[in-house]
Write a structure and sequence with these properties.
Elements lengths: L1 H57 L3 H12 L1 H28 L3 H13 L3 H9 L4 H10 L6 H19 L3 H33 L4 H56 L3
Helix pairs in contact: 2-9, 3-8, 3-9, 4-5, 4-9, 5-6, 6-7, 6-9, 7-9, 8-9
Length: about 270
């Protein structure tokens, strides 16, 4: 009986010892699983945040992107570039409207003048020119207004007033060229100053890390990018305006020659 009791007690102690060893192991396993679950949840949350950020980035409008880049470039140097664009486009729009208003159907006007001149109705021809818009009609009116002074004076009046009208057509064009030159200049200046600030940041940090260098250079170069974009836009419109002015000047010259031919042919 004593032997049986000893064996039973020994088995009981072994079971208790085994349970005591297995319990901490189970607790450790549960903690590891909980840690893994937490890490997995955090990783999933980070992925969701990245996906949301990517969707927001993709859904940004063109206006929002421009606003963000404008702020990144610094208002101190981006504002002069923006002013060059606003003022330049205001002058461009004014010139486009003026030149479109200055466009005249020269052939139809000359036919009307010739019809009145053949009848000797110079006042009717002058009235026709007065009611027709554009520099060509104004030049013809100045010539008809001096018809009683001889054809030589008429020709001088047409030539002189033609030069005045050409100057009016080219008005404000020099200001547009100024803004075309200023926009990239402000951009380059902002870039140079931004690069100096970037090197100051590198010196303060005491390390040429890619983050410091790339961030400073990105902000600095944005002013140059916007300055060049503004200059390109204004240059395109400037060339269009030059083409329009050349076309009007050509019409004025051809029309003036035809006008003088009409007066010479019908001179009594």
């Amino acid at each position: 009986m004593s032997i049986v009791g000893l064996l039973t007690f020994a088995n009981f102690n072994g079971i208790m010892a085994q349970d005591a060893v297995e319990a901490p192991a189970a607790e450790a396993t549960e903690q590891v699983e909980e840690t893994n679950d937490t890490a997995a949840v955090e990783a999933a949350a980070e992925e969701v945040v990245e996906e949301v950020a990517a969707e927001e980035e993709a859904s940004k409008t063109f206006h929002q992107v421009l606003k963000e880049k404008y702020i990144q470039g610094g208002a101190g140097w981006m504002t002069p570039v923006l002013l060059c664009l606003i003022l330049g486009m205001a002058l461009v729009i004014e010139r486009i409207l003026y030149l479109n208003m200055a466009t005249t159907n020269v052939k139809k006007l000359l036919e009307g003048i010739e019809e009145n001149v053949q009848k000797g109705d110079y006042n009717g021809a002058k009235e026709l020119c007065r009611n027709t818009r554009g520099p060509v009609a104004s030049i013809f009116y100045q010539g008809l207004d001096r018809i009683n002074e001889g054809l030589e004076n008429v020709e001088k009046a047409v030539t002189s007033y033609g030069g005045v009208q050409m100057a009016r057509l080219e008005s404000n064009m020099t200001w547009i060229t100024l803004f075309i030159a200023l926009a990239p200049s402000f951009g380059f200046l902002g870039t140079v100053i931004g690069m100096v600030q970037a090197f100051d940041d590198i010196e303060a940090a005491g390390d040429i890390s890619p983050t410091v260098v790339a961030g400073g250079m990105k902000v600095a170069l944005l002013t140059t990018v916007f300055g060049l974009i503004v200059a390109i836009i204004l240059q395109i419109f400037y060339n269009y305006l030059l083409t329009k002015i050349e076309s009007l000047v050509s019409e004025m010259e051809d029309g003036s020659i035809s006008f003088m031919d009409i007066l010479v042919k019908n001179q009594k």
